[in-house]
Amino acid sequence: MRKAVPALVILGLLLALGGAWGAPAETADGAGHGGPVVPVLLGLIVILLAAKIGGEVFERMGQPAVLGELVFGMALGGLGLLGFHGLDFLKASVGIEILAQLGVILLLFQVGLESNVGEMLSVGWSSLLVAVLGVIAPFFLGWGVSAWLLPDEETLAHVFIGATLCATSVGITARVLADLGKLSARESKIVLGAAVIDDVLGLVILSVVSGTIAAANSGGSLDALDTLAIIGKAVAFLVGALLIGGWLSRRVFRLAGFLKVQGILLALALSVCFLLAYVADRIGLATIVGAFAAGLILDGVQYRELGEKTKHKIEELIHPLCSFLVPVFFVLMGLRVDLSSFGQTSVLGFAALLSLAAVLGKMICAAGVIERGLDRLSVAVGMVPRGEVGLIFAGIGAQLTLHGRSVITPPVFAAVVVMVIVTTLVTPPALKITLARGDRKRGGARPVPEPEPERPAVPLG
Amino acid sequence: MRKAVPALVILGLLLALGGAWGAPAETADGAGHGGPVVPVLLGLIVILLAAKIGGEVFERMGQPAVLGELVFGMALGGLGLLGFHGLDFLKASVGIEILAQLGVILLLFQVGLESNVGEMLSVGWSSLLVAVLGVIAPFFLGWGVSAWLLPDEETLAHVFIGATLCATSVGITARVLADLGKLSARESKIVLGAAVIDDVLGLVILSVVSGTIAAANSGGSLDALDTLAIIGKAVAFLVGALLIGGWLSRRVFRLAGFLKVQGILLALALSVCFLLAYVADRIGLATIVGAFAAGLILDGVQYRELGEKTKHKIEELIHPLCSFLVPVFFVLMGLRVDLSSFGQTSVLGFAALLSLAAVLGKMICAAGVIERGLDRLSVAVGMVPRGEVGLIFAGIGAQLTLHGRSVITPPVFAAVVVMVIVTTLVTPPALKITLARGDRKRGGARPVPEPEPERPAVPLG
Q: Whole-model pTM?
């Protein structure tokens, strides 16, 4: 961490620079004729440095880098409370917003690329049961907590808050399991399979909730039939994208093999991703649903047609784009947390209960493991982290309005961010404990040799 | 080319889609809640497909892909003349503009990364003389043509048009020489060295001209002292960036070697690029000057500190970003050409004379080759293509205003685009002819075995 200090000094200098010159507006002021890209450049420097310093600090504490991006984003946003307003332009910049949205679209595309439909279908009933229980329980717990503590909000707002508790972050769990050398254990396979199914279920719930909110805004009532229609649309989109899109893009990609021009693979992959994201938006779903479907499609295509090598190639080409744009999303989410709302004890209480609901809700997953002799508690703990997906849902909720009011208000957004941070922070140490306990139970037999941990386990917080 | 037909069909379907749904505005219209990123997604799909289809068609005609991007962009822009306005939103979209600007910043960063300062200083007097002659002659020829044909424009506009004729496109010449197996010939080294020096000289001229325009706008007069001050500032920036920036970033990158977080190399490289681009803009230079300087700095750093392997790594990480964003710039430049201005014969005449000035101006480069026994005509022909740099200058000129009027008006912009296309189209076949002639003169001795050309030489136009 000592090594991160000079980087912090540089970030400080940059902030001073931004402050001294003021927020670079899009108006020409004598010097500077670069147009709207100039403030975006300054914003990107601050965001990239904050993301990497935050990521480094959290990785050294044994935590996922994404948390560091979020927390350092919150810290940058909190500078406004200390009277420094040189970065306020970041929150309002359309350019940064568009880059962040492209980042989250590419992230879900990447998640889709890494999820294999065939594997998803083969992980068996345990994964499916774990996933369904792990979606239903937190959803209703979150709804209940929200209805209890925020009686003035509309029912749909409670439902939306419940939805932010559904998803499981594949990335964080997979990372912890890999660090512990447990990726090939049966429990791990159940957790990872369930996390992927959770993504799909979560996206369907998100579609239903946002669709219902759109219907409510246009004055329609929300009967069961409409809800069923939206579920049908979401499922039809995903299945249709997989079947028709898969068939079509297999042909397009085979054709592209005959082209000579450079960069055709990346351009086609991005086009498919952007097209499905766009179509998803036009039919009333979230753009990320389309991006995820595009990832699933292209994973299958590459795998079947061009073999392992080219499949890795799409992911490798997408990787630098994600590495540039995804942190923009997480730092911006952190920036948008209104730290002053934590001054209200009610917000802190709501955040605490929401976090509790999020953790307890996933404990029910243990009941979904139908195979015998497995470490059910580890499976349940592995399902706890919400990571990026909860945040993405909250971000969408903050943009949606119901009867002229944000569905996710700034204090609720802050509480959801706390829930995401808590569930993610709790998982790595808890999983280490439950897995060790499970190994002892089985008489010390360790299915996979556990490597000497590189970093000391650090207490939470 | 037959293989590109299905892709054209898909592009057509997309255009129909865009037309039927209309330009997706940023306002919510029932379906769709994805915010400002949604129209950008549609725009990116159209741009990426147009870029790749255009690139493919032109590559198959033995021409550089960048021309295809430009021409297909012009074709998309021309759809408006045929009564199709579904793509008009592309020209006005701030999101697409920002992505295009990031693309051109990354392109100049990449050019900088590929230029080696040490190599630039070692190519000797021939390269320097060729470069200087090849900047001065077209500059004054272009100025003269503009002053003659556009007597109503201000002197500074003529000067700016002259500036767009200065630069040489390293990329296109290098590509043709590589295709002919001539990259290691002495003539090629002179051309490539001179092209890099041209980039620097061109950027200095651009800085001076834009700075003078800014001074003129704020009511100041433009005496020789001010011009010298701007030259001083530009040179000081480049030298300062190379010395201080090189020293500083060498330390930062060495430090970054101790960091564990993923993506640190890309994040730091982008931060240096964006920071210098931002600083360049704040002191009144163009953002691309800073991006080029950043590339020069990081090329040196990587080379000295971390060896060949990591040096390639920065370029490899930047490559997918460029592959995504650079075509956005060229297609957008094509889109912005007002095809209807070609209906005026005066514009066509201006474009023809400007192209002639651009070609003849570079012929004087032959006099700069001081070594004996070399093929001077090939050196001069190699300096002809303007490619991306001329376009970038014209794009900047279109954004600058002088006394409330664009420095580069739409008809002049169209003429500059024609000049860029003509000089670039002429070079590959002309270079093949002069190099073959030079080989015959030397008694058929071919310094490097010339591979069987893969594609037949296609007549111009």
A: 0.80
